[in-house]
Amino acid sequence: MKVSGVSVFTQEHIEIEINQGKISTIRLLPESDQTLPYVSPGFFDLQVNGYMGIDYSADSISDDQVKKMISNLAVSGITQHIPTIISSPEDKILKNLCSISHAINDCPEIEQAIPGIHIEGPFISLQDGPRGCHDSEFIRDPDFEEFLKWQEAAEGRIKMVTLAPEKTGAIEFIKKAVNSGVIIGLGHTGASPEKIREAISAGAQYATHLGNASFPSVPKVNNYIWEQLAADKLFAGIISDGFHLPGSAVKIMARAKGMDKLVLTSDVALLGGLQPGVYKWGEMPVEVFKDGHLGLSGTDHPVGAGYLLDWDIAHFIQFTGHRLMEAISLCTINPAKLMTMPPDYGKIEVGAPANLTLFYYHSGDSRLRIVRTLCGGKVVY
Question: Residue 262: which H helix or E strand, with range?
């Protein structure tokens, strides 16, 4: 198979030949064809809770639902994603981990698209604000023995756990989890700056959707957001959809954290992509607004995200003034680096996996226009 486009990184017109799921040849083309789309590494989303009515934290997950999720995400250029299970009873977490792992074992296409699993909670703050939309009934203190049960059910596929470092036993949990090869994300936390520093010293590597799931107001200088922005060792994930963070905050976070430590993630949820209206999500009435964002009905509180990375990339560019190639790096190269994927992952070079997204974009567009998505050399959209 061959695909042609304008490299999002070099602006060169190229033809990519694909063999056995990898890029085998890259050939320069004359720059006379002005209709070629951009070609980029496939987008990698570290936090997908659900989408279009499918939920990774539902009572049950089938192989067909996982396949449908991959297909739905491919429309936005996402070729790899990390299924995220939020705070739930232990038996439900174990059941869903088994289901996702079974789907990966049963289907090479699913295995190609899902390089790991993320557990967000239940070891998070119980306080309103930092808890976000997680059910308080299921919040509990970190328990490494419980984590080991999760990892057994997932057949070793849990790659990230998000927790609040102020929870009892959290620092010791971080040390043990990191030693086992798992990435610790700090999130849904109201921790002191001192506790954030302690968690980073213990091995935490990531700030999960920084700036969200926070108190409505925080101390003006001594707070957990500034501390995570200032931490050079910490990657930071942000949701740049324009609803979770204002454009000014996205701009400041990009400046403070630096483009090599920033990750764009959708945090998309069960109701994302559905028609406007009020739906029940557990016991919560959640509204899908006419503009596509999700919120607790009757409030201005976001409840998960309704948009995917094709939207978030374009809005990040609008908010920060960064170039397209720089924004693309935040959901290709950077998440691959954080997740310690092979060194050619998220790149366009010979030998790299043929996970590719072809799209059109013009300055000022509200989203990328995806025309083709390939995962492991196979067209998935």
Answer: strand 262-264
pLDDT in tens, 105-161: 999 999 999 999 999 999 999 999 999 989 999 999 999 999 999 999 999 999 999
What CA–CA distance (Å, rounded) separates 282 from 285? 8
**Which pTM does this prediction carry?**
0.97
Report the amino acid identity of residue 56: Y
263: left (phi over 0), alpha (psi -120 to 50) or beta: beta
Given a contact cutoff of 8 angstroms between Cβ atoms, the answer to whether 301 and 229 are in contact is no
Is 337 exposed, middle or buried, given 0-12, 13-18 or 19+ CB atoms closer than 10 A? middle
What are the residue boundaries of the structural domains of the chain, listed by start?
42-346
CB within 8 Å of 329: residues ≥ 6 apart? 259
d(CA 151, CA 149): 5
According to DSSP, the residues that pair with 296 across neighbouring strands are: 286
Please check whether residue 77 is in contact with residue 43, taking contact to mean a CB–CB distance below 8 angstroms. Answer: yes
Pairing of strands 356-360, 38-41: antiparallel
Give the class (CATH, top level) of 42-346: alpha beta
> Tokens at residue 24, please?
């085998």
CA geometry: angle at 92 spanning 184 and 135, to 5°? 70
pLDDT value at 2 more than 90: yes
Q: Please give the C-alpha separations between residue 311 and each of 52, 79, 81, 346, in angstroms, as whole numbers.
A: 16, 15, 16, 19
Scanning the chain, the segments in alpha helix (DSSP H) are: 63-74, 90-106, 108-113, 144-153, 170-179, 193-202, 224-230, 247-257, 309-320, 324-329, 333-338
